[in-house]
Specification:
Chain lengths: 500, 117, 492
């Protein structure tokens, strides 16, 4: 298979999958089989491109030309390769998980759910492979729109309101800032292609570049940099598989991935090093890291806490990009991978608690570890990986980020990273610890659930989550560990992007 | 400034403003059309005045006459008059239909009927 | 050779077809006549555009009388483009009228509808094609008078008052234009546009010319409904029959914008219009206000057709913004947007007609659940809406891109930013409809609604499809609009 064909396939497979899933509306088993096959085939195709990219090739596919010099095209480079691998790989896992979750939860409109999921994945692939900024922008918008039905899946007024916040911020920033930035770039540079070393060098003075950088970084609302982070907590009304794959991996990572890509291929790290705006953005990212960690501590709703934790972790990557040193950029790239595995595990666990025990609040989870040991164990692993302890993948990305901060001579950000890790400990670890060692108190659980959530006693005992959920959780937990041992290969893959 | 000598232009301005005022200030749809006609009539006068050449006669070739008024504006305004007639006819037809539909031709009453429905 | 007479045929065919519709009023004959007339006009305009692109400006002396005494039809890229827009939309809408009119109660007098429609088409194309200032006024009145008739045919009785209001304001606008033309004649002694501009350059621009400029500008702005002279537009577009709204929204204001371009650039010349007289800043300010108020008011409309009408007010703001930049890029963006917006609004209003055909309402509440019941129609609406917003791969994106680039060329960063912000407002009002149609279930006990008939869907999708096509194949509109801008600004 030629690489061009593989690129086309990785966009087309999920789209064809979406159509087929739509056609299988009446046969849920067939529908889920199609989902699984699609996800598997996509991953296989993506893996097939990997050796070529790793060996330094940049396969390219030009789809069409809008006007001279402005094409819709896809080029695979290491950063995109990594993102595509993660998104497509975790899609398989999420599909397994969704089957257990959606059925266990008896959700409605499941077909629409799977269709939109597939389209979202096609858009994510498009973002990963995009060869210029316009292609990326188009896929970025498709991703936003295709995830909207997923966010408002419940169809309640609350969900619709959240959906409006979601769309409002993502579309608003992308059209108001990002598209403007893109057009300005085009008017300055005459091209939008992602080019090693950037396309803006020597084309405009520092103030313009700085302003442009602000437009890009704020325009990429999916990166959830404060003050444009509100959409992510809002999106938590979605079913948990959506929160897991899209709002911990595909969508948010698409955002920070774009930030990295813009940093490396539009501006070029050499150019950005002398731009003052990066300093502002470094501090803003640091502030986002700390503030959202603090906000996370105040949240009792598990998914809300995880959402704020995600905001904080995303800013690690933005910080990495804005420090513009070689290690920090690579660290940012690695963090896309390590955080993806860690956070998806946590979300899977949150969903498992919801399906198996109908518990959404952290205060209800005392003692849950005794009845759901696998889930709670996985939660512990995920937390440790996010915190960045060995032997979990999270360690390495933080390591490189800190290294990058030192390279850039910014000791303060090393401290920020350390403080943030402590905060992670404070808001994540208590959950599994109380789960294992806490005492379940049925009496003070709020709401009408208390009757049947009381563990081990009475009418409806809590059991472990459905088997498909457990399989998924186990796979991602293993992934967290595996990343610790295979971080070298990611490093090797990403190294060329910052090569001078 | 030759005020009297330009009297026809003063008439143009007066007619224009008077017509315009009627269109704006009157709520009766027929009166509005009347105002519109006055407004248009001012333009006719304007064109006709422009065509006049001092001392010239009607542009009909005759022995011993060398100075003619310019016929073109007069011809043009003939077209404009036709357009004006058509506009008035159409406007009146609309007013008839409005009266059939609303039972009134007073603007504020029509608005009230629309708001109520 | 018949090709030489294309400019005359362009106008004569629909002009003759109009009375024929009334004379041959049996059954479907008027429809057939209208169909043949509009499509031949469309084909001729395509051929004319081809000729202009190959050979440059075409000059045709009507009746063999030489300019500047006779009436000259003078076609450069700008009019060729406008002719293409008008005749193209005209020919796509005709098949649509056959079915949508049935509901809108004038079936028994349909031959009159076609007659008025063809006259309107004639008038609009005449305005575009002529090189004679007074002739322009006559054609403008032909198109206006027939469009008042067309609007008054709407089902709602408010169509009558809307038509009346349009008649009054339209007549005032046209009268202003004719006053201006008269003053120009007074100053130069000529009515041929090219001749006027040459004589103005030689004789200089005295106070009469300034007065003429003022009258013509105000009159044209009234005709093209630039804020705050847009008051006639929302009612007229809302209450007119669907097919008429589509036709007028896509063509009438576009032709008025063309008139403005022609007067500003060809007749008065850019130097006089924008340097001697400071027209640029006020126009730009009004354009920006129009962009925002139009979109903003659109957001709060319950009647979706009215919402589209207000969105037109905003879109006209974009076009005037392009004019006010006074650069080749800006004017090219305007001409491009004339074309693209005709496709957008034409498609959207036709989609509205499909919806009205089935649910007999334009109210947003009745849109609930339509996404599933009328999937093709709503899909057309969504694509049109995306193009209106300016989403990549649609025609609207290309014009937005050009507008922003044109603003950046002049180093007007804030204008570029405002352009983006106003498209956000478009997102809001389009999204309201999408949310209602796709994410709300229809009210309990509502009647079953099925997909619109194919005869309505095909014209709708032709225009909507054109939005996608010209969003990807951008070469033709970009080249022509650039040629048009060069022709208007007189730069090569």
């Amino acid at each position: 298979m030629s690489p061009e064909f593989a690129i086309a396939l990785s966009i087309v497979i999920p789209l064809v999958g979406a159509v087929l899933i739509g056609l299988c509306d009446r046969w849920p088993d067939l529908r889920e089989t199609v989902t699984m096959i699609t996800a598997g085939a996509l991953f296989a195709v993506v893996v097939m491109i990997l050796p070529q990219v790793a060996s330094g090739e940049r396969p390219e596919l030009v789809l069409l030309e809008l006007f001279p010099g402005l094409e819709i095209k896809f080029t695979v480079e290491p950063l995109g390769m990594l993102f595509a691998l993660i998104a497509s790989g975790l899609w398989i896992v999420t599909s397994i998980y969704s089957i257990g979750y959606m059925r266990g939860h008896e959700e409605e409109n499941q077909t629409r759910f799977y269709v939109c999921f597939a389209i979202a994945l096609a858009a994510a692939m498009g973002i990963a492979y995009s060869g210029n900024m316009l292609t990326l922008f188009i896929c970025y918008e498709i991703l936003t729109l295709s995830t909207y039905p997923l966010v408002t899946h419940a169809g309640t007024n609350e969900a619709m309101r959240a959906g409006r916040v979601y769309l409002g911020i993502l579309i608003g920033t992308s059209i108001g800032f990002l598209l403007l930035g893109i057009i300005i770039t085009w008017s300055i540079a005459g091209t939008l292609d992602f080019t090693q070393g950037g396309i803006l060098t020597g084309k405009a003075d520092g103030a313009v570049i700085g302003g442009l950088l602000l437009l890009y970084v704020f325009g990429i609302g999916k990166a959830a940099l404060m003050p444009f982070h509100r959409w992510l907590p809002a999106a938590m009304v979605a079913p948990t598989p959506v929160s897991a794959l899209l709002h911990a991996v595909a969508v948010v990572k698409a955002g920070v991935f774009t930030v990295l890509k813009v940093t490396v291929y539009i501006f070029g790290i050499d150019l950005l090093r002398d731009i003052d705006a990066t300093i502002w953005l470094q501090y803003l990212a640091a502030a986002t890291i700390l503030i959202s960690s603090l906000v996370a501590m105040t949240k009792d709703n598990l998914k809300a806490r995880l959402a704020y934790s995600t905001i904080s972790q995303l800013s690690y990557i933005v910080l990495g990009a804005m420090l513009v040193s070689q290690s920090s950029v690579i660290g940012g790239g690695m963090h896309i991978a390590t955080h993806a595995f860690g956070k998806i595990t946590l979300f899977f666990c949150a969903g498992a608690y919801m399906v198996a025990a109908h518990k959404t609040e952290i205060s209800q989870l005392k003692g849950i570890g005794r009845v759901m040991p696998v889930t709670t164990g996985a939660f512990l692993i995920g937390s440790l990986s996010i915190i960045g302890l060995p032997p979990f993948g999270g360690l390495w990305s933080k390591w490189y980020l800190a290294l990058g901060a030192l390279e850039a001579d910014k000791l303060i950000f090393v401290i920020v990273l350390l403080v943030s890790s402590l905060l992670n400990v404070a808001y994540l670890l208590p959950i599994p610890i109380r789960g294992f060692f806490g005492k379940a108190d049925a009496s003070d659980a709020p709401g009408g659930h208390s009757a049947h959530v009381s563990s081990g006693a009475g009418d409806s005992p809590i059991r472990e989550a459905p088997l498909p959920c457990l399989i998924a959780i186990t796979i991602t937990s293993i992934g967290c560990v595996a990343l610790f041992f295979f971080s070298d290969s990611i490093y090797e893959l990403l190294k060329p992007i910052v090569a001078p | 400034m030759d005020i009297v000598g330009l009297y026809n232009y003063w008439i143009v301005i007066f007619l224009m403003m008077a017509g315009f005022y009627v269109v704006i200030a009157r709520g009766n749809l027929i009166k509005k059309l009347v105002g519109l006609n006055v407004f248009q009539a001012s333009v006719f006068v304007l064109y006709i005045s422009m065509g006049k050449v001092t001392g010239g006669t009607a542009p009909i070739i005759a022995e011993g006459i060398t100075n003619y008024s310019n016929p073109l504006p007069h011809v043009l305004i003939l077209t404009a008059i036709v357009v004006g007639v058509a506009t008035t006819a159409l406007g009146l037809a609309l007013v008839v239909r409005i009266r059939q539909a609303y039972g009134t031709i007073e603007e504020d009453e029509i608005h009230k009927l629309d708001d109520d429905s | 050779m018949i090709t030489e007479h294309f400019p005359a045929l362009q106008i004569v065919i629909p002009l003759i077809a109009a009375p024929l519709c009334i004379l041959l009023r049996w059954r479907n004959v008027p429809f057939g006549i209208a169909l043949v007339a509009t499509w031949s006009a469309f084909i001729i305009s395509c051929l004319l555009l081809g000729q202009v692109m190959d050979q440059g400006i075409i000059s045709y002396e009507l009746g063999g009388w030489a300019a500047p005494w006779g009436i000259e039809y003078r076609i450069d890229a700008a009019n060729a483009m406008v002719l293409l827009i008008v005749s193209g939309i005209g020919s796509v809408v005709v098949p649509y009228t056959r079915n949508s009119m049935l509901l809108e109660y004038i079936h028994e007098r349909h031959y009159m509808f076609y007659s008025a429609y063809l006259l309107c088409l004639t008038g609009l194309m005449g305005v575009a094609i002529t090189g004679d200032a007074f002739n322009l006024f006559v054609f403008l009145e032909i198109s206006s008078l027939s469009s008042y008739v067309l609007i008054s045919l709407g089902f709602d009785r408010r169509a009558l008052t809307a038509a009346y209001q349009y008649l009054v304001l339209g007549t005032i606008g046209a009268t202003f234009i004719v006053i201006g033309i008269g003053l120009l004649y007074h100053a130069t002694g000529s009515l041929n546009m090219l001749d006027i501009s040459q004589r103005l350059e030689i004789n200089g621009y005295d106070r009469t010319v300034v007065a003429a400029f003022a009258f013509i500008t105000v009159g044209t702005l009234l005709k093209l409904a630039l804020f705050p002279l847009h008051l006639w537009l929302p009612d007229a577009y809302t209450y007119a029959p669907s097919s008429v709204s589509a036709f007028l929204a896509a063509t009438a204001t576009k032709v008025a914008v063309y008139v403005l371009l022609r007067f500003f650039f060809t007749i008065f010349g850019a130097e006089f219009s924008f340097e001697t007289l400071p027209s640029g800043p006020p126009l730009m300010a009004l354009a920006i206000i129009a962009m925002f108020t139009g979109s903003f008011v659109a957001i709060f409309q319950e009647n979706i057709k009215r919402m589209l009408a207000y969105s037109s007010v905003a879109q006209i703001g974009y076009m005037i913004l392009g004019v006010s930049l006074v650069t080749v890029n800006g004017v090219a963006a305007t001409v491009l947007h004339l074309f693209n917006h005709a496709l957008i609004k034409g498609g959207l209003f036709l989609a509205m007609g499909c919806i009205y055909f089935r649910i007999s309402s334009h109210h947003i509440d009745n849109f609930a659940g339509l996404g599933r019941r009328m999937p093709l129609t709503m899909a057309a609406f969504v694509v049109g809406g995306l193009s209106l917003i300016g989403v990549p791969l649609t025609a609207g994106f290309i014009s937005k891109w050009q507008f922003v680039l044109a603003a950046l060329d002049r180093d007007l960063w804030w204008v570029a930013a405002l352009l983006m912000m106003s498209s956000l407002l478009a997102v809001v009002y389009v999204w309201r409809v999408v949310e209602q149609a796709y994410f709300r279930s229809p009210p309990a006990g509502s009647e079953a609604v099925t997909e619109a008939p194919t005869s309505l869907l095909i014209p709708t999708w032709v225009l909507v499809g054109a939005n996608i096509y010209f969003g990807i194949e951008t070469e033709l509109p970009l080249t022509v609009s650039r040629m048009a801008a060069r022709a208007l600004l007189g730069t090569q």
